[in-house]
Amino acid sequence: DARVTLADISRDALAVAKKNITFHKLSSRVSCVQADAMAEPPAFLGKFDLIVSNPPYITGGEMLELPKSVKDFEPHLALYGGEDGLEFYRSIVKNYKNALKPGGYLCFEFGIGQGDDICAILRENGFTIEERTKDFGDIERAVLARYGRKED
């Protein structure tokens, strides 16, 4: 019964998403909007129970060392997360926490070794870390945080 809003800055990515929504007959429950993770969300979006994001997280140094199979086929916009790779996380936490309902959740995927820094960003902005998750290669790659402090 979930209602889902997909957001991206890329019109091309949204076009692919819309085709998939139609193909899977999800038009009554899934919508797409163009939004910028580096800016405040449009007011018409309303409030969410959960926001899930896999933002760009590759550092400036890592961008210089990307294999051709990545740098020649993936858009720069989808990869580069600022010099330290954390620019989008800071912005999303700052700008989108007010788009969460009270007690709402924010879930991030992140790059190898970024977990502690991202959890610090979340905590500094009033989130409680609920879960940190590893991928199938046993590498920590995701965090789930709740907006608000844990009640005793």
Number of strands: 6
Largest sheet: 4 strands, mixed
Distance N terminus to C terminus? 31 Å
Contiguous low-pLDDT stretches (5 residues minimum) are: none
Radius of gyration equals 16 Å
Our count of helices gives 5
Key traits:
152 residues; alpha/beta; four-stranded mixed sheet; two-stranded parallel ribbon
How does this model look, in words?
It is a single chain. With 152 residues, the chain is α/β, with parallel strands linked by helices. The chain has 5 helices and 6 strands, in the order βαββαααβαββ. The strands form 2 sheets. Strands 3-4-6-5 form a 4-stranded mixed sheet, covered by helices on one side. The protein has a two-stranded parallel sheet with strand order 1-2. β1, α1 and β2 form a beta-alpha-beta unit. The longest helix is centred in the N-terminal third of the chain and has 13 residues. The mean pLDDT is 93.
Short description:
It contains five helices and six strands, in the order βαββαααβαββ. The protein has 152 residues and is an alpha/beta fold.
